[in-house]
UniProtKB/TrEMBL annotation:
SMART domains: AAA. This is AAA+ ATPase domain-containing protein. It comes from Halarchaeum acidiphilum MH1-52-1. The lineage of its organism: Archaea, Methanobacteriati, Methanobacteriota, Stenosarchaea group, Halobacteria. InterPro entries: AAA+_ATPase, KH_sf_prok-type, Nucleic_acid_metab_PIN/TRAM, P-loop_NTPase, PIN-like_dom_sf, PIN_dom, T2SS/T4SS_dom. Residues 506-522 have a biased composition (Basic residues).
Length: 605
């Protein structure tokens, strides 16, 4: 129009077009604002008498908008061109072809593809600049240095104003929309993310942010596998078979840089490699196709990739539960997976899977953890599963599936992960500080205390004697409640926790001094004499009476009698015995019966 080619023409603008442009602008999409700008320029030409402009037709209905993908709105626009016998001007190649088939006079304007020129914000970068941070009213800032020694510093002396930032933003958006070497990754109200060559740029505007802000990030180094420690071992491991790998580290540690090196190494060795990224900013070779969300969902992307059948997929970054589920599904489908996750310790990468996937499946999903620190490989873990008695527990009947986390280089076990009383516990082993109360001991004490508190009103103290033996100290009034009728309650707790527990009076546990020690020694002598007749507990030294049972099976309920007189009802334990904890009312009755040399018998109910 500005060239004068259509001087004196009447321009018909369909209301359906105006509605679409307005909706896009209301949603914060730049294409909508661009459309409004074009309409304003047409209105200015009409005011100058160069052209006439008319708005015609009706806005699309909700039903028509719902069928927009099927071409309903495009059909409305073509019908208006036909109704006015007008030349149909479009840059939509499909619309142009259909309009020509309908017999319309069509002028197709091919979208311009311009070479990406240097952006104004690139002037803030130098060879050691990883990211530039520009905000209205703030002096320009940047992260500069070498990997492992990055500092956040001022790179200008004058605060920026909103108008300057808007000019930068307009240039970025325009370049991203029109260049073959750039694209808009995300366009939402208040946030635009663009990729221009190797620079990822985020533009935030109010009300999403409290001020106009532009953040631009560019990789400062590109590496190969040869630049890292454990290079040969890692190469051999990756080529041995398809793996599940988590690359972990703190922000800025160099995780994505290592992931890019892994991707290109696999590609060079004949593997089909794809990436899943949002945003797409890994700097990889052209042979490696980079995918983002399909229809707003990485799950749809994964479904599509399974049709492509890659050997390895690089997932950058795995953060939310949905990401871990997609990663797991693809791994279990047989695809080699390399995921990038944020973690401050190597074990934290695995911990992020706990609760998101079934515990026993973790080694099938992730068998290797690579922890990056200061731009280099710091730790590599090998992850396997084994059925065994966990560290800190002793009895063979406590064996269960245990995830073994070993140092890849030394093969030394570093952690064990397993379930304990329906909870998942991660226990550090030797070389990682050794077993400590922060591991199984602390968990066991907390679980015992929680179970016992349900039957007490006063304070509860727990003392662990070994990995599977404990004493619970409660007030004298609470002892009978903890023991329960016939010792049933404490035995239920023992069965649930896989521990042997005795209840004692809290006041006695606090006794100190010579007289207290003398009384304790006297009680111990009496107990030793009685122990000759009663036997000791099969699993340790806890003060509990043990009555062997030969004619009833474990779990069966029986009666304990003294010379035929009823004493209590009990459940036969796993070892074919009945345990009666000392200090209980029932134990005192049993003591008196033994002292009177009565015959103790066990009778099935």
């Amino acid at each position: 129009m500005e060239s004068g080619e259509y001087a004196g023409a009447t321009v018909y603008v369909p209301e359906a077009v105006v509605g679409e442009i307005e909706a896009q602008a209301n949603n914060g999409r730049e294409i909508g604002w661009d459309g409004l700008s074009e309409l304003q320029r047409l209105a200015d030409l009409a005011d100058e008498g160069e052209i006439d402009i008319e708005y015609v037709g009706e806005r699309a209905t909700e039903a028509e908008i719902g069928r927009a993908a099927a071409g309903a709105i495009d059909a409305i626009i073509r019908d208006i061109a036909s109704e006015h016998d007008a030349t149909f001007v479009t840059s939509d190649i499909v619309q142009a072809e259909v309009a020509q088939a309908k017999g319309l006079d069509v002028e197709y304007l091919e979208p311009e593809n311009r070479e990406v020129e240097a952006l104004a914000i690139e002037d803030y970068f130098d060879e050691q600049t990883m990211s530039v941070h520009l905000k209205d009213g703030v002096v320009p800032m940047a992260k500069r240095g070498e990997i492992g020694n990055i500092t956040y510093q001022e790179i200008g002396g004058t605060p920026l104003d909103a108008e300057t930032l808007k000019e930068y933003a307009s240039e970025i958006r325009d370049t991203a929309k029109r260049s073959d070497d750039a694209f808009i990754e995300l366009s939402e109200e208040g946030m635009t993310i663009a990729q221009v060559r190797d620079i990822r740029i985020a533009i935030a505007t109010p009300p999403f942010s409290d001020g106009f802000e532009i953040t631009a990030v560019r990789p400062i180094v590109k590496t190969t596998m040869a630049d890292y420690e454990h290079e040969e071992d890692l190469k051999e491991r990756l080529l041995e078979r398809d793996r599940g790998v988590l690359i972990a580290g703190a922000p800025g540690a160099g995780k994505s840089t290592f992931a890019q090196a892994v991707a290109e190494f696999l590609d060079d060795n004949g593997y089909v490699v794809k990436t899943m990224e949002k945003p797409r900013d890994l700097q990889v070779e052209e042979e490696i196709t980079q995918y983002t969300e399909l229809g707003g969902s990485m799950e749809k992307t994964a479904d599509s990739l399974l049709m492509v059948r890659p050997d390895y997929t690089i997932y950058d970054e795995v953060r939310k539960t949905d990401d871990f589920e997609v990663f797991s599904d693809m791994r279990l489908a047989g695809v080699g997976m390399v995921g990038v996750v944020h973690a401050t310790r190597p074990i934290d990468a695995l911990q992020r899977l706990v609760g998101r996937v079934e515990l026993g499946m973790i080694p099938q999903i992730v068998d290797t953890v690579v922890f990056i620190e200061a731009g280099d490989v710091d730790t590599v873990y090998d992850v396997t599963t084994e059925v065994k008695v966990p560290e800190g527990l002793m009895e063979e009947d406590l064996a269960r599936p245990v995830i073994q986390v070993r140092d890849f280089e030394t093969k030394t076990p570093a952690y064990e992960i397993y379930t304990f009383n329906r909870q998942v516990v991660t226990v550090p082993l030797e070389g990682e500080g050794g077993p400590s109360e922060s591991g199984v001991d602390k968990l066991a004490k907390n679980e015992i205390e929680r179970e016992v508190r349900s039957a007490t009103r006063g304070p509860v103290e727990v003392e662990l004697r070994s990995g599977n033996q404990a004493v619970v100290y409660v007030t004298e009034d609470d002892i009978s409640h903890v023991i329960g009728k016939g010792g049933g309650r404490i035995q239920d707790i023992e069965n649930r926790l896989g521990l042997t527990i005795d209840a004692g009076r809290r006041r006695q546990a606090r006794a100190r001094g010579r007289a207290g020690r003398g009384r304790k020694r006297g009680r111990e002598r009496d107990e030793r004499r009685r122990d000759g007749r009663r036997g000791r507990h099969a699993r340790g030294h806890l003060p509990a009476y043990v009555i062997p049972v030969t004619e009833a099976s474990p779990g069966e309920t029986v009666e304990v009698r003294a010379d035929g007189e009823y004493l209590c009802t009990a459940t036969v334990g796993r070892g074919g015995e009945i345990q009666i904890s000392r200090g209980s009312a029932i134990a005192e009755e049993l003591e008196r019966a033994i002292d009177r040399e009565l015959l103790i018998t066990v009778v099935r109910e």
